[in-house]
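Re: that chain you flagged

S.,

Sorry for the slow reply, it's been a week of failed gels. I finally had a moment to sit down with the sequence you sent. For the record, here it is as I used it:
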Amino acid sequence: MNLLKKVVAIVLVLVAGAWAYYANSGRASMVMNARVASGNTPFPVVLASVERQTIRGTATYTGSVVSFNEEDIYPRVTGRILEIPVYPGDRVEKGQVVARLDDVELTSKVREAEAMLATAQANRTQMEAELSAARYGIAQMQKELAMVEAETGFQQAVATRDERLFTKGAISQQDAESSRSMAVSATAKVEAARAKVEQMRAMEASARKKLEAMDAMVALGQAQLRTAQVVRGYVDIQAPSTGYVVKRLVAPGVLVQPGMAILKTTQVDKVRLQANVGERDMGAIKVGSAIVVSIASGGRPLNTRVTSVFPYVDPGARTAVVESVVANPARQLTPGQYVQMQFTTGERKDAVTVPASAVTRLGGKASVWVLKGDDQVEPREVTTGLEGPDRVEIVKGLTGEVRVVAKGQEGLYAGARVTDTSAMTAAAPARGTAPEKSDQATAMKEMPGPATPVQTAQAGGAAAPAGKLQIALTSNPVTLSSGNAKLRFEVKDAAGTPVSDAKVEVNIGMPGMTVPKAAARPTKEAGIYELTAKLGMAGTWTVEANATRPQGGSASAKFTLEAK
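Prediction finished late last night. Pasting the structure tokens below so you have them in one place:
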């Protein structure tokens, strides 16, 4: 019995402890994850109106810069590299010689081909002479044949006459037979002459065949010479297209052969901007869709359009490549560089929109907190449409006559009381931020002044101006929202007189970052020169100014500029 009471007591203690742990842990969880308004204290939130406006849907992806075309340059013959006159970063034109090989062996082959051609041409000349001789022999034999034929005709006529006279007894039988034998002999001479003519014609045909063979040998020698000359020309390795040298793959003195790359070039006057776009956005992105490209290093966004959508989706990542080919004359875009590509997925006019921060999603469903009455809110499920960077289209669930909670939804419940803090937020800018200024307020002509904070530096000490000139620099405070540093230089001579005919060149840089060298332009004010430079990183920048006068005198000074 006592044992049973002890067991029951232990069980009760364990149950009580478990309940206390559960209650305390749940309360702690509530405190950590929710804002609790004690009593009737309303929740501080930021309210925004539902607006009807034109909305442009966007989808943002990280892309990269790809060269328009990249080529490896190969030698076409085996040889030792004598020189490579180009280096990475050099621009090369199509047909420009970018490397040279040793041409001793190939030059020897050219000379060998020239000698063979000369031999063939000499043999052809000999065959032409033989053909001419054969034709001359034919002509002579034809003349001799004509003479023999004439003599034969005469002898035959004499033999016929003597035969008639012998029959009449006018001459002796011996005379008749003598005439007959002379006619037979003349006929034999005709046959012999004809044989000689045929022989000379055969010799002519043989000489003609030999001449044709020599013509073929000459043509072969000419072709071999051209081939040897072309192959020797391969020792001058040329760029196949216009571009920039990316890398030298071998050094002078190396023995190379066909198929062995020696240089890598790329075309960057045009580049390809490529992003892997998710298949859920592919249906809304077409060729011609607008893109806003932001460069990681800063600078003005680039507006372009889709030029190609690759017809293949990666089965693993479920993405496809979308590309835009853009001109890059200033080489601002470098292959391999990351960019942010904001694609336009659609546009709708007179759409019901709310701030993007007002939409909360849970379990695939979207909802917003709607102001009910004067100070109470309730959740409302909505259907979203196009989504822009700042606002979201509400297709179903809201009208344009309500207000929604844009910020501060944490811990809200149906019927919770709220108070709008948007007015206080607008009146008190965050610490470290400066009020926006119009371009006119930040213009250099209004600097300096008590209402415009400025930075002023004078060249002095180790950096004192050389010669008889002095330089002073005045600059606006530089914020990365604009990235623009508007610099104002004042140049004076040793007497303090403004100098308006100086050439002012400016170098701006910091470790790891460099702004291209630029010239400050003179203004209407005497001795004042201005320059607007784009800075893409916060920190301390070094400004080096060099001023030179045409008639002599110069100055060089360094300043520091803070970008925040």
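What I noticed first: The two ends are 81 Å apart (CA to CA).

Talk soon,
D.
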